[in-house]
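The authors assume throughout that readers already know how a fold can be written as discrete tokens. What matters is that the chain and its backbone geometry are given together, residue for residue. A single example would do more here than another paragraph of explanation. For illustration, here is how one protein appears when written out as sequence plus structure tokens.
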Amino acid sequence: MALEAHDNGFALRLHEQVILSHDSDMPGFFVGRGEPHVHARLGHFDLSQDVIERRALTHAEVVGNSIRFAERAGTPWLLEATVSEEGADAVVALTALDPTLNRLWLRVPAGADEHVWGGGEQFSFFDLRGRHFPLWSSEPGVGRDPASALFQQVEAQRKGGGGSYAHTNFPQPTFVSSRRYALHVDSFAYAAFDFRNDDFHEIEVWEIPARIELWTRPHFTDLVSALSERFGRQPPLPEWVLGGAIIGLKDGDNSFARLETYEDAGVAVSGLWCEDWVGLRVTSFGNRLFWDWQWNAERYPDLPARIAELKARGIRFLGYVNPYLAVDGPLYAEAVSRGFLVMRPDCDEPYVIDFGEFCCGHVDFTNPAAAAWFADTIIGEKMIDFGLSGWMADFGEYLPVDVRLANGESGMTAHNRWPALWGKVNAKGIAGRGMTGEMMVFMRSGAAGVQRHCPMLWAGDQAVDFSRHDGIGTVICAALSAGMLGNTHHHSDCGGYTSLFDTTRDAELAMRWAEMAAFTSMMRTHEGNRPRQNVQYDDDPELLAHFARMTRIYAHLAPYIRRLSHEAARSGLPVQRPLFLHFEDDPATYAIQTAYLLGPDLLVAPVIAAGKDEWTTYLPVGAEWVHVWSGASHPGGGEVTVAAPFGQPPVFYRAGSADAALFESIASA
């Protein structure tokens, strides 16, 4: 590292590359004050601000490893930055010398042909260059393209909830540059990344953050490993997961009979996931759950015996939980009596949130006693001790900003932090029962640091269609962006989830989604929010036979995925990888978000459009690629079009791979 002062400013150089620079004519640091305005409804947040002042810090003075900034020479110092070296990396610690300052804008030098990835889990654009990304945890929305008819319907009939390309359950102020460096803002305040300028990237933070962290590495794989070490690594997948698909059914006790239909059709089954184990609540949106986290014996009589029977057959049972408690459930009353809920700021009452036709309190995870109660009593006793082997740990994005928390933290910073706290509660409950690495917990919300607590991400509530910003293709983008920041395992609701208005799942989408899911860390189905209006995998023998074959392919790949899972625990490299992670000398791979590598040697390009029987994808330079279904070889460095009938998704393996025999036999699995 080198902090180089010059007459008009300084440059921070890492591995011969200037990462930060400042000049009186082109300042890199700006500070100011702002007043936020936040409106929330059903997990959607509209944020704006009054910028009271924005001051360019044109004057900088470097003394040793410290830099002081002022608006001009001779005016009071406003900001101090202390630069420290940590191995091959650097940290810039920031201190506001004027306590009224609550905004920072940082400009980072950029190249016109640079590519940028990260920002948490992004659904619309993998390469962030050329766009502006607000970073605030929220529902991603449905109809995320404002020009779409679905967006217009959602906005008109549900009065909000359409979202945009940048909305995400998992924002993280971290990015990786094609210049081989990564930058992280150590803050949970609202932030925004602006990559629209050719000459610089601008980072906006609604506080003076504690630190700006920087990494440089010669290879992208090394950068991903460094980030995963910083944010935490996941344990290897539980062995039982690799045996087949987790079948999602919310049909009460009838779920067990339906599971037998799957098995009779030759489906490889590893688990039965019944999110309605807690009971149902029917709303205009569809079938919701009763948010009181314990067994509903009326809906699932004799469930403990059923779970034991399944486990004896090698099938695990999974459930559902989230961090809220329905006001009409007994756990809410217990939490109120013990003072475990997030409170209103203006009175001594719990902050009750409307979730759409029912209301809930929010357990306050900044209260150590409340977090311990949830971890031990709900996660430990009512779920693990009861017999669950995993669950969807849903939500985490809804914390209002006008709350009173036990630790006194502002809701403006606690909001983005909450998913990491939620993940920690789940991990603590599992560790308390000695079951780390054995439970399969999957989350949709995230924040910096959730990686060390969450063993599996899922991509949230995709629409049940092929639409560009809502449907099946967004899952690939989500997996690749999250994977760059140390989230090694990712999957999605097989068949999608959200059905609104006239958007319903058909057999074509169900089959194409199953084909993609077979080549991910975990294969799991979901009936969706309106099960009876949407095609289910057990509705038709032909559809079920197709699904069964895809589950057998997933199980066939278990030796490969198992090895990748253990590699991920050591190195932090994701199971699903962008093409450039192993072909970094091929710039044509840098913006590809419709295909991915499963490990280093298997290239998957799922069919993500309707009405296709062939598909075109790019094959990277530097390898010969073998089409799994035909055995035909194709040179890298260009596009190839292959037949893609149902049951034969475009998949290629690297010629000469040590796993060639396993890949060759996919076709006969």
In short: The radius of gyration is 25 Å. The domain at 580-668 is CATH 2.60.40.1180 (Immunoglobulin-like). The first strand starts at residue 2 and ends at 6. DSSP finds twelve helices and 39 strands in the chain.
